[in-house]
Give the backbone structure.
Amino acid sequence: MHRKARLVLYFVFACSFISLTGAGKHIRNKHNKYSISFPDAMMKVDDTGTDDGEVYYDTAAKIVMMITERKSKFHSVKEYIDCSQKELETLLRGYYADSTLRLVNCSISPYYPKESTVILFHVGVLPYGFNTCLVYFVHHKHRDLQFSFTYDEEPGRRQGEYINTVMKTLELK
């Protein structure tokens, strides 16, 4: 490969890396003591009709991210999302009012494993063809935080990589 072609290749790789890791929006929540970053393409959706949290949407990636926060009545995340609980899928079906909901995975999150749990499930009641939810439940400083990602799981799309890129920027303070 010629030197010029190699330089162009390195430049393209660097731009791709920066777009996935360095660039983007940054939220610092001093009240709930966390910060998180996400790509510039993820835009805040105003006037969602809900006071439950902040909603963001990336039209190119077709991913919705919702951040909710509330004072906790629990002492740990395991008190309200326990992966060993056999009826967790049934409880989620009732919560989402969706008898077709299927729990795919419930595990300790790799990001802050002592404070967080992540669940992945498929649903049938969401608008715009979205059928998959990935929710990070975080218990931090007597607060419950949820980082919910909703998308249409299609073969070949890389939603998991996109979500991991966002979640690895989470900092609990």
About this structure: The chain has one domain: 25-172. The mean pLDDT is 81. Helices lie at 3-21, 88-96, 159-167.
